């Protein structure tokens, strides 16, 4: 299949790629660029494990073609921590026990970041609603919500 | 429990950083140079003869490297359907290609000709004589025929006197029993104690009902995946996301006839399992076959849709249940007959039917269970396999009895519960148990006696019991020259068990938690470890860790005794050093110094070993109370409160234990209210998250977990397995709450809104 030139920025690095039009952004990130922190849980946009931030908005990357990401700025879970410090959401997931198997965790952390950037004063009900596109099968959500609430507070006080 | 420095503390997990940064390597993250990608050709019918498989067009597609069918399985074990397909989505062939999309294109080009056969999806239809049959040799006697046949066989064997008249009479009776030969039976199990007929005769109230529990998928978030690499020497390496690498090794060896020592299974981080990730046929064996044929590494990753059609979910079942009680609430007898939907292969958790006895006294008990073949994929374990289903039936019926006799449902249960030393119906005596404490704890947590409710609101209570498994495990603990310790083992951590093991070793060696690190080996390097299922790991590997740490402690004391010129008996471990217990002047030496000393003398590296087979485990109870509100217009069940208590023996890490309770409870809630794999004559009709709904954070409030600690005599520091119990009560907890709210008794799950509305209008089940 004919490949198309695509230029995109992922976590501040720019990539000039040649990709088939049938490859998703998720496949581009995982297989072409080699950033495997973003997970594939359903391939139909229903579980949220592949959530990344595209130009400031949370997107399920299995539902976006790689060629559509041309010229976009993308943040994945690998781009959240600085060299010596975790993002407050990552730290909160550790402190509150907000993960178990961890497969959905990158999606939850990225979706939470996108949401809290938009609504730093979110209530518990708003957070529960905003994360309603992400499925976790292990935790029952109690500790995830605790983690996001406490991260929001830490981010407000930073 | 405050005497411990590290145990019982909410320490962060050992894998914290890799899990929150995306660095953890799951099965799908393995990428090898030259790797091919495998895809399956799957049956388009639930039951059909395969007339022809034509791969010629697919072979021509550029990038295709191999196509395999059952003909390529030299051992002859069934990996692919060859003569007959038994369910929609059953694999018939597999393709390896240079790109996953090319492999999928090629799979679509393979032509299969079928002769379609009638299919059966419903267990109660499958046992009828006119049902389509999946296998031969599949008929069994039902309980009534079986009772007579058992006596007949005894009489026929007894040559001491003439029984011909009695034999003729019994044979005549057999003739009159109709509908008691079952077809499509994969397995059966029967147990009894006392005399249920007598028990029902002595009862003031006998309640009978039929309960229907749907087949649900474990829905681990990472679909099945494996990467196999077969070298020219024949050596097989498999990167597997699995609960049991050693089970995968023996499974591949057994299925393909490869010597065990020619197989290395490298376990990756695993994205959830819940019992569904022990088998080898879904991806591991096909990946090995494709790699054998191509000489290249091959990755096979199932899609979510394939998980629903070809996964191995939890069996649904139909349970006919009858319970007899006295007017004062004393339970006398229970009789249960269960039909488990095994799908196309044997293996549904029918043995759990005995848990219909719950944790109650039941002077008279009889339980019969059958596994039934249907045109669906086979089943596997799902968190306390079989128990949520039977607890739904048992605990719903007790709730109904409490209502009829106007008894408090908590008091009624407490009155009939077994305590330590009581006989277990059709089982041994109870060891040390904490059933009453656990139920009381959740009742206290919600202030049960003073509960209030508004219109369309109700409270439900239920319990479920489980006993953690136990299996063999081995482990090494090394002391490094800097005084830190490293654990090496081969068991899989899903829920934080590595953290618990590090806490145990740190506690015994008096090290800070941060100074104990842990590594997992593959099956070539690590000592054997039992699979991570059955709430087994903390109990088994915790005991193993204790042995390994104590062995390390012994060696440290010996070395320190040499260096300090002091008897071993006068020494102790303290703060990462070996010190004199008393003595003037006090003497001590650090672990690091001892490790360095040992390296340069005849001692060699300090390595403690733990090797463990088994110890008796003790049963644990989970108890839950929910408060719900029903919208009578839409039928939506809103959970206002959910409290979940569990006897965990001793919570080595309370944060991890709470996580298990919360997660299990929500899975139970989902089974009760929304999850159901649906089938029509053509097969599964809801293979995706749009039609198979699982709960999200928007569905539920916070789960309040209540930890109860009734020490397990043989558990490490008293701990019991915690993973499975919390799912067991929730199906009934929810159903009982709905009854309390709006007076309807739903006996067929899930309680989707439309079913609740129908029941409110008097035409539901």
Identify the notable features of this structure and list them briefly:
heterodimer, A: 158 residues, alpha+beta, Ubiquitin-like (UB roll), DNA polymerase, domain 1, 5 strands, 16% strand, B: 765 residues, Aldehyde Oxidoreductase, domain 3, Aldehyde Oxidoreductase, domain 4, 7-stranded mixed β-sheet, 5-stranded mixed β-sheet, 30 strands, globular
Task: Walk me through the structure.
Chain A is an alpha+beta fold and 158 residues long. Chain A has 2 domains: 4-79, Ubiquitin-like (UB roll); 88-157, DNA polymerase, domain 1. Chain A has 5 helices and 5 strands. Chain A has helices spanning 25-33, 88-95, 105-118, 124-130, 142-157; strands at 4-10, 13-19, 51-54, 57-60, 73-75. Chain A has a 5-stranded mixed β-sheet with strand order 2-1-5-3-4, with helices on both faces. In chain A, helix 2 crosses helix 5. In chain A, 58% of the residues are buried. By secondary structure, chain B is an alpha+beta fold. Among the domains of chain B are: 27-117 and 224-301, Aldehyde oxidase/xanthine dehydrogenase, a/b hammerhead (Aldehyde Oxidoreductase, domain 3, Alpha-Beta Complex), CATH 3.90.1170; 432-466 and 618-760, Aldehyde oxidase/xanthine dehydrogenase, molybdopterin binding domain (Aldehyde Oxidoreductase, domain 4), CATH 3.30.365.10; 471-612, Aldehyde oxidase/xanthine dehydrogenase, molybdopterin binding domain (Aldehyde Oxidoreductase, domain 4, 2-Layer Sandwich), CATH 3.30.365. Helix content of chain B is 28%, strand content 24%. Chain B contains 19 helices and 30 strands. In chain B, the strands form 8 sheets. Chain B has a 7-stranded mixed β-sheet with strand order 3-5-1-14-11-12-13. Chain B has a 5-stranded mixed β-sheet with strand order 9-17-16-15-10, sandwiched between helices. Chain B has a 4-stranded mixed β-sheet with strand order 18-26-27-30, with helices on both faces. In chain B, helix 5 packs antiparallel against helix 6, helix 11 (387-404) runs parallel beside helix 18 and helix 17 packs across helix 18. The two termini of chain B are 48 Å apart. The mean pLDDT of chain B is 96. Chains A and B meet through helix 2, helix 3, helix 4 and helix 5 of A and helix 1 and helix 17 of B.
């Amino acid at each position: 299949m004919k490949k198309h030139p695509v230029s995109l920025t992922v976590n501040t690095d720019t990539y000039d790629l040649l990709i088939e039009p049938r490859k998703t952004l998720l496949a581009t990130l995982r297989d072409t660029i080699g950033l495997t922190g973003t997970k594939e849980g359903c391939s139909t946009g229903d579980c949220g494990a592949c959530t990344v931030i595209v130009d400031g908005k949370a997107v399920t990357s299995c539902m976006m073609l790689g060629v559509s990401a041309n010229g976009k700025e993308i943040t994945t879970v690998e781009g959240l921590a600085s060299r010596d410090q975790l993002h407050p959401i990552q730290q909160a997931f550790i402190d509150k026990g907000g993960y178990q198997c961890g497969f959905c965790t990158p999606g939850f952390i990225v979706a939470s970041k996108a949401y809290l950037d938009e609504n730093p004063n979110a209530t518990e009900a708003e957070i529960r609603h905003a994360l309603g596109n992400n499925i976790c099968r292990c935790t029952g959500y109690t500790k995830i919500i605790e983690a996001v609430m406490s991260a929001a507070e830490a981010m407000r006080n930073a | 429990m405050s005497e411990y420095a590290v145990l019982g503390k909410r320490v962060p997990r050992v894998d914290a950083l890799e899990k929150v940064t995306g660095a953890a390597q799951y099965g799908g993250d393995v990428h090898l140079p030259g790797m091919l990608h495998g895809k399956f050709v799957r049956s388009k019918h639930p039951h059909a003869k395969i007339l022809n498989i034509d791969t010629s067009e697919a072979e021509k597609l550029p990038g295709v490297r191999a196509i395999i069918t059952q003909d390529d399985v030299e051992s002859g074990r069934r990996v692919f359907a060859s003569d007959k397909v038994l369910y929609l989505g059953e694999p018939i062939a597999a393709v390896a290609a240079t790109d996953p999309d090319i492999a999928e294109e090629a799979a679509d080009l393979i032509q299969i000709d079928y002769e379609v056969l009638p299919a059966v999806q419903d267990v109660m239809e499958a046992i009828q004589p006119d049902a389509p049959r999946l296998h031969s040799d599949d008929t069994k006697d039902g309980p009534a025929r079986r009772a007579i046949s058992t006596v007949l066989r005894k009489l026929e064997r007894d040559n001491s006197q003439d029984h011909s008249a009695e034999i003729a009479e019994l044979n005549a009776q057999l003739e009159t029993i109709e509908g008691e030969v079952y077809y499509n039976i994969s397995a059966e199990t029967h147990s009894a104690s006392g005399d249920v007929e007598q028990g029902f005769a002595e009862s003031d109230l006998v309640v009978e009902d039929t309960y229907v529990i749907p087949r649900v998928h474990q829905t681990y978030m990472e679909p099945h995946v494996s990467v196999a690499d077969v070298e020219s020497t024949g050596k097989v390496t498999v990167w597997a996301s699995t609960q049991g690498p050693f089970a995968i090794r023996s499974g591949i060896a057994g299925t393909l006839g490869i010597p065990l020592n020619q197989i290395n299974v490298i376990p990756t981080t695993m994205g959830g399992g819940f019992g569904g990730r022990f088998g080898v046929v879904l991806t591991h064996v096909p990946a090995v076959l494709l790699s054998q044929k191509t000489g290249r590494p091959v990755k096979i990753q199932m899609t979510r849709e394939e998980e629903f059609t070809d996964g191995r979910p939890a069996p649904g079942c139909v349970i006919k249940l009858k319970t007899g009680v006295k007017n004062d609430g004393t339970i006398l007898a229970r009789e249960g007959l269960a039909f488990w939907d095994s799908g196309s292969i044997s293996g549904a958790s029918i043995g759990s039917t005995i848990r219909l006895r719950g944790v109650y006294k039941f002077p008279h008990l009889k339980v019969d269970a059958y596994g039934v073949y249907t045109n669906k994929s086979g089943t596997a374990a799902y968190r306390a396999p079989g128990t949520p289903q039977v607890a739904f039936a048992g605990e719903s019926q007790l709730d109904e009895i409490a209502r009829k006799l106007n008894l408090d449902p908590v008091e009624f249960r407490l009155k009939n519960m077994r305590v330590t030393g009581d006989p277990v119906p059709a089982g041994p005596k109870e060891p040390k148990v904490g059933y009453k404490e656990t139920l009381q704890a959740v009742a206290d947590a919600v202030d049960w006696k003073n509960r209030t409710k508004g219109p369309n609101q109700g409270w439900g209570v239920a319990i479920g019991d489980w006993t953690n498994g136990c299996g063999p495990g081995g482990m090494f603990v090394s002391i490094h020259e800097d005084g830190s310790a490293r654990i090496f083992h081969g068991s899989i951590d899903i829920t934080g068990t590595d953290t618990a093991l590090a806490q145990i070793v740190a506690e015994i060696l008096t090290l800070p938690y941060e100074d104990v690190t842990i590594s997992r080996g593959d099956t070539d390097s690590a000592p054997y470890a039992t699979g991570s299922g059955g709430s087994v790991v903390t109990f088994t590997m915790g005991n193993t860790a204790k042995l390994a740490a104590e062995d390390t402690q012994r060696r440290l004391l010996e070395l320190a005794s040499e260096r300090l010129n002091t008897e071993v008996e006068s020494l102790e471990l303290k703060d990462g050093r070996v010190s004199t217990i008393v003595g003037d002047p006090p003497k001590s030496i650090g672990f690091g110094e001892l490790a360095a000393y040992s390296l340069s003398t005849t001692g060699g590296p300090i390595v403690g070993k733990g090797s463990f087979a088994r110890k008796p485990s003790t049963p644990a109870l989970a108890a839950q109370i929910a408060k719900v509100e029903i919208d009578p217009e839409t039928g939506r069940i809103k959970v206002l409160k959910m409290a979940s208590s569990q006897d965990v023996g001793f919570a080595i890490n309370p944060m991890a234990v709470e996580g298990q309770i919360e997660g299990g409870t929500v899975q139970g809630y989902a089974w009760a209210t929304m999850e159901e794999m649906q089938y029509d004559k053509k097969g599964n009709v809801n293979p995706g998250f749009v039609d198979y709904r699982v709960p999200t954070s928007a569905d539920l409030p916070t789960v309040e977990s209540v930890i109860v600690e009734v020490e397990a005599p043989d558990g490490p520091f008293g701990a019991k397995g915690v993973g499975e119990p919390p799912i067991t009560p929730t199906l009934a907890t929810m159903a009982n709450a709905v009854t309390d709210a709006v007076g309807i008794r739903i006996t067929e799950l899930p309680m989707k809104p439309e079913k609740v509305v129908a029941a409110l209008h008097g035409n539901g089940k």
